Amino acid sequence: MRTGLDHGRYDEGRAINYWELDRPLERELRRLYTNDEFEWAEPRLAEFGEIVGHAIADNADYIDDHGPELEPYDAHGEIWNRVRYPAEQLENDRLAYERGIVADAFEAPPGRDEPMPLAHTLAMQYLLSYADVGFDCPVAMTAGAALVLEKFDDGDLSEYYDALTAREYDDLIEGAMFLTEKQGGSDVGANETRAEYDEQAGYWRLHGEKWFCSNIDAEGTLALARTEDAPEGTAGLSMFLVPHSDPASDETPSDGPYTKGDRLEDGPLEPDAVNDQRYRRLKDKLGTTAVPTGEVEFTGAKAFLVGEEEQGFKQMTEMLNLERLSNAAAACGLMGRAVLESAIYAANREAFGDTIDRYPLMRADLVDMTVAHEAATAFTFEAARLLSERERTERRARAADAANADEDAASATADESAADAYRLMRLLVPIAKLRTGRMAVDTASYAMEVHGGNGYVNDFVTDRLLRDAQVLPIWEGTENVLSLDVLRALEREDAHEPLLETIEERLETVSHPALADAAETVEAEYENLAAALATLATEDGEYAQLSAKRLAHYVFDVFTAALLLAQAQTGLEADDETKSEESGENTQNGRVALIARRFVATELEERPARGITSGDRDVLEAFEPIVRGGPVDPEILSATAPADD
Questions:
Q1: How far is residue 141's CA from residue 215's CA, in Å, rounded to a whole number?
Q2: Any idea what the Cα angle at residue 70 is, between residues 158 and 463, rounded to 5°?
Q3: Is the pLDDT confidence value at 320 over 70?
Q4: Which pTM does this prediction carry?
C-alpha cells in the first residue's frame, strides 16, 4: 500500500527539495499553465526547489546574522553610499537570477517562443520564500520595475529594462520602489519630493526625502516626485528612474547601467561616480535582514522620467498589483516552510511515551495549518492567473501593434479580454495580500509554539520565520489600507459582478456526494455575501469603511471555499485515473476534497456548542492524507459527520 511522507526521517526542514514536497504549488501550476508550459517549467522548478532547499537556505541563515552594512562615507569623508554584502548573499543572488526568476517572465527563455506568465516568477518567489522572505523583496521589486518599464517606457530606458530582465548575473541590475515619505506614509498624495528639469544637463533632478527604501542601492530604483506646477495629490505625481550611479559621470565604469558585473569587477563606486543622493542609515529591523532598508535624501539626484508626466500614481498601481501578489506568494512560501518544520518536529519530538504527532490535538493543529497553507496558495494563484492573463494579452497586443498588424482588431481583442480579467483581479489582489500576510504571521507563530522553548531561540529557524513574517501584513499596504482598496475596486470597477458570477459558476460544477454538505454551506454563505455587498452599496461611506475589513475576509473565505470545492470536484471526476491499482484508494484527488471540506468547516460552518456535541472525529481520519499526503480511504469521503445532539 502506498504511504505518505514520513516526516520523521528528516531532522529539520532544510537539505530538502521544496518543490517536490509542496503539493499545493504543483496543483495550482498544473491548473494555471498550459500543458507545454508545465512540461517546460517542472524540471526547472524542481532544480530551483533543490537549490533553495540546500545552498540558499543555508546562506539565508548566515545572512540573518551577518546582513548588509552601510558605509555612507569613504575614508576622506566623501559620500559614496556603499552597501557591503556578505559573499553568501551574492551567491544567493546569482543562484536565483541566473535561473530566470525574473527573466523568464519577461523574455522568452531557452526552449520557448514567448515569456512565461507572470505567475511563473511568483511561483519561484514562493519557493524562494521557503528560505528567505527578505531576499524575495529585491527580486519582487526587480520584476515590478521591469513591468513598469515594459508598459510605460517609450524606449529611452531600454538599457535599464534589458538589465532588469537580464539572465546573466553580470549583466543584471536590481529594482526598487522608493515610495514612502516620513510625512505621508500610505498617503502617497502627500509626497513632497520635487522634480526639476535641468535644461543644461538634460536630466531631471530630484530633491526630497524617502523614509523606507528597501534595496536601497538598487540601480533600477523607481521613485515618485512632483514636477513644477503639478497639481497636489496623487494626480500631480510623476514616475522617475533614479540610478544608484551617476549616469553623467565619467567615473562610472560603464556607459550604461551599473551592473552586478561592474560592482564585482570594479568594486564600490568612487564618490564622483555616485548619484546625488545620501543614504543616511539602514533601519535596524526586526527581520528580513537580507534586504537593506534605509533612508534616502535626494540632493539633486539625476533621474529619468518614465513615460509621461503626472502619470506616476497610475504607473505605481500597476507595479503594486504585482508587488502585492509577490507579498502573498512570499507569505504562502513562508507558511509552507513553517508547516514543514512543524510536521518534522512533531514527528521527532517524544513526550509521554510517543511522538507528539500521534496525539489528537497536535494532529488537528497540523491539519489546520496545512489547510490554511493550501487555501492561501489557491487564492493567491487564482489572482496570479488573472494578472498573468491580463498582462499576456496586453503584451501580445503590443507585439501585434509593433509588427504593424491590424491595430484596431488587436487593441479591441486586448481591451475586451484584459477588462474581463482586470475587474476581478483588481478585487482579489488586495484581498490576497491582506489575508495571506495575517495567515503567515499566525502560522509562523504557531510553528514556534509547536517547537516549544526550542522554537523561541535562534538555534531553530522558527525564530527567523516569525520575525520575517511580521513584515508581510505591512509591506505594500496594511490590512486597513488594503480594505479601503477593496471598497474602491467595488465602487469603481463594479468588481462584485465578476466576483459573484465566478463563485456561482464554481459552485454549479460541484455535484459529487462527498462535497454535498460543504457545497450547501458555501451556497448559503454565497447568498449572505451577495446580501452584504448589496447592503454596503446603499450605506454611507463611514459604514462602508467600518465594514471593509470584515468584507475582505468574508470574500476570501467564500471565494476560496468555492475554488477548493471546484478543484475537488474536478479531481474526484478523474478518480479512476488516480486510484492505486493495489488498494483502490484515492491518493490526491480525495485529498483536495478533504482539504475543501475542512476549510469550509473551520471558516464558514456554524456548529452548535462549537462542534463539541457533534462527536465529529473527521480531522483525525484526515491527518494522514492531508498532512502526509497518504492515501484516502473512500469511506472517509463517503462518511458524513454525526448529527449534533
A1: 9
A2: 100
A3: yes
A4: 0.95
